[in-house]
Structure formats: structure tokens, C-alpha cells
Amino acid sequence: MKPILRATALGRRFPAGEGVWALKKVDLEVAQGEFVLVAGPSGCGKTTLLNLLGGLDRPTRGDVELKGTAFSKLDESGLARIRRRELGFVFQFFNLLADLTAEENVSLPMRMIGLPKAEIALRTASLLEAVGMSYRAKHTPFELSGGEQQRVAVARSLANNPLIILADEPTGNLDSKNGLDIMELFRRFNQEKKQTFVVVSHDPGFAEYADRVVRMHDGVVTTIERKGG
Amino acid sequence: MIGLVDALVRGLTGFLRALHPRNLAKMARLTPLYFPLAARSVRRRLLRNLLVGLALGAGIIVYLGLAASFHGTAANTSRRTEPLVLPADVLAFGIDSPDSQPVESLKWVAPAGAFETFDRWQASTSLGTLWVVGLREGSRLWSGDGLPPLPLGGEVLVPASVAKAGKVALGDGVKVGEQARSGFAGATFRVAGFVEGPAAADALLGNAVVMRLDDLLALRSGGVLVGGPLPAPNAVAVWERQPGDNDRLLGRVTDLFPRASVWWSDLPAARALAAAGGFLSPGRVILATVFVLAGLGVFNVMLLSLLQRKVQLGVVKALGAEDDEVFLLLLLEGVFMAAGGAFLGLLGGSFLVNFLDRSSEVPLFLSGLDFIWALVLAVVSFYLAAWLPATLCRRASPIQLMAGRRLYVNPRSTCAQCGRCGGF
Q1: Which of A90, A213, B177, B417 has the most neighbouring CB atoms within 10 Å?
Q2: How close A111 comes to chain B (CA, Å)?
Q3: Quick one: B119 and B236 in the same domain?
Q4: Per the CB < 8 Å rule, is B322 touching A57?
């Protein structure tokens, strides 16, 4: 299957002190509808890789291509447009905007691309329904539990029907039950809507959800395991 | 330091770029999206934002209070100035030729004293072609130069050099007027004294027949002269006595010198009044400093607010907000605070001045221009105060904000590598 996301010789060096290569040289391809789990110990470069794949950060070397568009050729505005339309993000600490209610958080990406109000309202309701959060639509993040906030964050990441959802330790701040619920949610969207996921987690238990597990260590990919061998 | 200068230059060019119609249209399109977000954010941190607004409002109140005080003091000084009776407060002189530059010609009269009256006219006299100078009774040009007391009407002083040449003696008659083809037209004046001593070397009096200004004016306006109209002073400089007297004074001056161009200047008090309102007056500089200090307060709070919300702003960027949109969001938040503060400041300032004016010995008053200046300075200082935090945020990458990393004025990685300034 033709990949929609491709990372080539990706490297990221942080300038602190004498410089640290958080990511040394990573090649990765993600196909449409695939569920990829990036696993590895803390500090191995998983999050750095995800940030580069999502255009949240710029690589020191190498490049990322999304449907043939190289990130290196885009300016900041171009990257922002890619993030807005083609990518969805789920973060470890939920990162909902505290000033907005659950439904406003979900509708914000849609408002950013200028969808009509009626369509926004319809889609927001449908997404909240899909993650089981309709009854909390008018609540602010402070009034929601961790699991609820992450559900809203998942709904937000799906708002603009992105090509790929990038999730950084989505269960890292949740108890095991809520963590499993979120992973089930991912699997459901992956299987029912063929939504592509790249999930970073250090929890080996989540390998069963993924089509492919990319294991990292010390800034490089060590193994890639496919489901069923 | 270089990074800061670079950032300021970039900020300025960015500001100018933002004024491009295409960018303004973009901002107008985006404002409805970010306006509620900004309003919500301001409301959520109401107390802190209220303090920012109050800092700005306090700046405006201090500005208005000081401006009113400056104006009042200047006006008070103006009132204490002894009124001078016209034409003693008129300095008049006839320029040498219509081609002369009147203002340049007027420069030399200033050292003679601000409130002298005289006129000068080149006329034919029985002593030859001479300048005829008319001086007022109380003129300081009479006294102190060894001149005799003012002659009575119809009398003149003649240059001592002419008297020494034996042409005239005391009590002789001297004709002053215009020599025309049909004969001499003018009047005969009795020689009452001689211009000598220091005055003899004076550019004005040294080679002139001197008479009373009234006599000169009567001769020039009433005499039947042949050979064309009487020459008239082309330039009159008037020192303004009080604001408000201008029309009356100007009327009298133009009556006296109908063909003259009139220049106005002010008494020191009036100058003080004007200086208080001048663009670079000391008062304005002090007042601008007040705004700089208020701006620093606003800057600190805005910066603190940004640093505390790094993650939130990073999320907005991660969701796809462009750099300019985040800048707009922060500026909109600033506008909310500034608008409230400016309103409170203008209202509070005018109330304060009104209240103090009742009990103050020195009158206080404000002009419309003071309010406009206060508003302009408030907007400028607020923009400058909000600009750096907003720029820091605009330039940071989403992950830089979300991970709470330090922000540097210069976005280049070399700036972060140096890190000596510590960043924000």
C-alpha cells in the first residue's frame, strides 16, 4: 500500500550544551488506514519523532512528506495549514483549551478552516456522541475527569477528518480502565472509519491494538513488528 | 543586544506588513474566530487583566492631571503679566524695499525691546533725502541714548552730523514730505534737538529725522502729497498680550498700518502656554515617561500571562493556528484590557481635574487635544508593551510552547545556543 506519511533519515538535535541528538536517523512509512504504535523506553525519541511527523517541530536533518508534500519546503504558515487540515493530535495531558467548553474545544479546528456554522454544530454533536461525551458538551475541562478530557481531545482530533491522528502517550495520564477505553476508541475509529493512527506509548500492552509496532531505542528504530509476525 | 535590535526591526517591518490591505482583510476575517476566545481569556483572568487596565488608566489620569496643571500654570502666568496699552505693545517698522524679506528684516528689532513702537519712512526733507523715524512718547529708544525729551507736536530731532555741517540750528524749520513734479508736499517741523551720542551711531536713529510717531503717521496719512501714494510700512510685528485679545489688537494694528503684513508673536506667558502643548515640550516628555512606566507594568503582566499560558498557546498553534493568528489573539486580549483602561483613565482624569480645579489656587483646564494625546500615547505604549510578548509567542514553534521551553527574542537556534540572556 502506498504510504501517506514518510519520514526519511529524520534527525533532531537539541542545542543545549554541546548538543544532544534526540533522534539520530529514522526512516518510517505509514500507510492509509494503518495503526502504528511507536514504543520504547523513556527518552528514546518517540515524542520527538511524533512532533516531527506532526510538523510541530523542524528536523535538524532529513524530511517528512505527507501525501507527497515535503515539510521542509513549507514555511510556518504552510505547516500550520497542514496541521489544521490533515493532522489530528491527541496529547498525554489532554491539552484542551481551559477557556472553552467541551463542544467549543471540538468545534475550534472546524472554525479555523471556516466551515459553516450549521455543519460545525452537526459535526460537533456527532463527534461528542461518538466518544460518549454528549452529556458533557457544555462543561469546561476543569469540570471533566481525565478520561473525559481525553475523550473530548480525541473528538477534537477527528474534527476535520484528518488523514492521520498522532497521539502522544494518550493513556499516560489515565488510569488503566480509562486508558483501555481510549485505546478501544482508537481501534474503533481505525476499524470502522479506516482512520490512520500513529500512537506513541511506552506501554507494551497496547501492541495488540496496532498493525505495526515500531520499537525505538536511543534515537533510532531498532525493530518493526507487524501484526501476525 | 543584536538579537533585540534585529527583533525590533523585524517587528517594525512586520507591523508595516500587517497594514497591507490583504493582511488587514485576513485579520478582519479571523477576528470573529479569535474575538470570543480572547474575550473568554480576559474574563477568566479578570482580576489580573483589570490591574493591567488600571495601570494604563492610571497613566492616563496622571497624564491628564499634569497636562491640566501645566496649562493652568501657564495661563496663570499669562494673567499676571501687566497689560500694555496699544500701541506700546506693537513693534512696527517699515522695511527698506518691497523685495526685502520681512521676517529677516524684523530680526534686528528684537534686541531693541519687545514693546517699542516706531515707523520708518524714506522721505524728502529740506535737508535732503533722509529716513524719517517716528517714535512713541514712552519709547525706550528716546531715553538712555542722550536724546532730549520728546518734542512737542510738529517738532523734530535732526541728526547731529547734519547740524554740525551748519545746515540747521535749534528752532529752524525743516520740511518733511515727498518731492513731486508739482512741487514739495509735506509739512514744516521745528528742530527741537539733535540726535547725537550713542544714538548717532545707531542704525535706526543715526541718520534719521526723528519725530513723534503720531506726527509721522499724520503726515503720511493726512498730507497731500504729489507723486503717488504714501509709502507705508510693509511689515508689522505684534507681540500678543493675551490669548483672546488677538482680534481687537489686530484690528487696531491693521488700522494703523493698512498696507502692512502683520506677524504675530507671543508674550512669554503665551509662549509658555504654547510650549506646554508643544510636541517635545518638557511637560510632554515627562508625561510620555509616565506612559513608558505604565507600559512597562503592562509589559510585565502581559509577559507573565504569556509565560503562564505557553502550553495553551502552543496547543492553539498545534491545532493549526498560524503565527499571525496567535499574534492577533494576544493583541485582541490586549485590546480588551486597553479599551477598558483607557475608558476608565479618560473618565477618571476628567473627573479628577474637575475636582481639583475647585480647590486649587492655580486654575486647571484640559483641551480636547490633551484627551487625544492621552489616548494616542496610551495606544502606542500599550502596543509596544504587548508587542514583545506577542512576538515571542508568534515566533515560537508549537512544541517549544507546549514543552514550556525558553523563548528567545531572536528565533534563530544560535540565540538559544548562546542562552546568556536566559530567554523568557
Answers
A1: A90
A2: 7
A3: yes
A4: no
pLDDT of residue B187: 82
Give yes or no: residues B147 and B27 share one domain. Answer: no
- Give me the pLDDT at residue B4, please: 57
Interchain proximity B317–A97, CB inside 8 Å: no
Chain A residues whose CB is inside 8 A of the B305 CB are none
ipTM over 0.90: yes
Domain shared by B120 and B228, yes or no: yes
Q: Identify the helix (H) or strand (E) that includes residue A171.
A: none
Based on its alpha-carbon atoms, the radius of gyration of chain A, rounded to whole angstroms, reads 17
Domain coverage including residue B162: 90-265
Banded pLDDT at B109 (limits 50, 70, 90): very low
Helix (H) or strand (E) holding A227: none
pTM of the predicted structure, to 2 decimals: 0.64
Residues of B within 8 A of A83 (CB-CB) are: 318-320, 398
Between residues A164 and A173, which one has the greater pLDDT? A164
pLDDT in tens, B180-223: 667 777 788 888 888 775 555 555 566 778 877 767 767 766 55
* Average pLDDT value for residue range B302-316: 85
Q: How far is CA B424 from CA A129, B1, B130, B146, B408, in A?
A: 41, 15, 81, 78, 6
Domains of chain A listed by start with CATH number: 3-226 (3.40.50.300)
A to B CB pairs, distance under 8 Å: 68
Q: Are B95 and B233 in contact (CB under 8 A)?
A: yes
Q: Over the stretch A176-213, which tens digit does the pLDDT of each residue have?
A: 888 888 888 889 889 988 999 999 988 877 888 899 99
Measured CA to CA, the distance from residue B397 to residue A56 in angstroms comes to 7
Q: Please check whether residues B68 and B94 belong to one and the same domain.
A: no
Backbone phi, psi, residue B361, to 5°: -70, -40
Is A76 close to B316, i.e. CB distance below 8 A?
no
